[in-house]
């Protein structure tokens, strides 16, 4: 049994869905296919959620109609020429969606977010499942919320592993079906409230399901030929890494490589399940594999860039040192704002932290810090991480740049720069 994951970019239009079908047609084993929301749907749903929560009815209605139009255009294209296209199934989801938006939101933004944003995955999987069935690739659509149970940490649900494993095994039993099609990114609490697992979380969903079903492998179908040593959108020449260890992949995602969700590896390592990253544009090519490798590998330099970071420098008001106690207070504050720290530098009088600008509450964070510390910050910085660096690539990358922070280990160097 294999697990496939198709991201939003692979199903951004009707041609993308047809391409998915042709890929799936090439396999005759048991499959669980995990799919994200179509194209940029999740971003659009985030905008809609904000409008809903802030009481901007006009904006919300506009967002809703656009999403409906977008999905129905794809649906119509796929089912053009069909005598009885199953419109009602998609209509029903939009009706449910609309009725949700007809109620006033609660006071919990993150809760509302999960209830709304999850419609992206429900819609994409329903459309694709119906279409696959119409092309005589029989498959069972599965609402993963019956199986993947989480706590009530909205937008970052934590999986209840023992409960979910039993449920996943009983629902995905392959007794009557060879292919299951289901959602990435979403789950539900014990009381059936929808949760999400964090942005780009479908990779993680695929890994969880693979772990629970003891899959032979996971394949993530992407718009790149495999795992590259740098982002092809930013670098003129890039190289594919044919084979990586789990450890290397964890390190790369930790430093901000977006190719796979950082949580994906752990469920796979546990069961020794290899992860293939392959191109949905060139499905006959080999791609990359992440697997257990015990010997030392020689990797080419790997470049990971994160843009638009903020560097906050915190110093004591009096002449006291920044010590354990104040640092733990600072970290608590960061955690309460759900900030993921990318880099930390500490000296006697300064504590500097770099992170992504949070969606909400940055000004509030700064004013809370200013109650106890002197605070400065710089915005719009790039954090460049180079694994397996050499002098030449360092000078290429830092040429004509203002470097704010440098950190270096034997394998990795990082520059925070303007
Ligand atoms: N649709 C979700 C997102 O865009 C999950 C995913 O794509 O993995 O974040
Ligand atoms: Mg996506």
Could you please describe the fold and organization of this structure?
The protein has 418 residues and is of the alpha/beta class. The protein folds into two domains: 290 residues, Acetylglutamate kinase-like (Carbamate kinase), CATH 3.40.1160.10; 116 residues, VC0802-like, CATH 3.30.2130. Helix content is 37%, strand content 24%. It contains 13 helices and 18 strands. Strand 11 and strand 12 form a beta hairpin. The chain starts with a strand and ends with a strand. The model has no long low-confidence stretch (mean pLDDT 95). The site of magnesium ion (MG) has 5 residues, from loops.
Mean pLDDT: 95
Bound molecule types: aspartic acid, magnesium ion
Q: Report the major sheet.
A: 8 strands, mixed
The number of helical runs is 13
**Shape summary:** globular
Strand content: 15-25%
CATH architecture term of the largest domain: 3-Layer(aba) Sandwich
Strands, count: 18
Task: Report, as a whole number of angstroms, the end-to-end distance.
Answer: 47 Å
Rg calc: 23 Å
What is the level 1 CATH name of the largest domain?
A: Alpha Beta
Low-confidence parts lasting 5 or more residues at pLDDT below 50?
none
Q: Any idea how many domains?
A: 2
By CATH's scheme, which homologous superfamily of the largest domain applies? Acetylglutamate kinase-like
Strand order of the largest sheet: 3-4-2-1-7-11-12-10
Helix amount: 25-40%
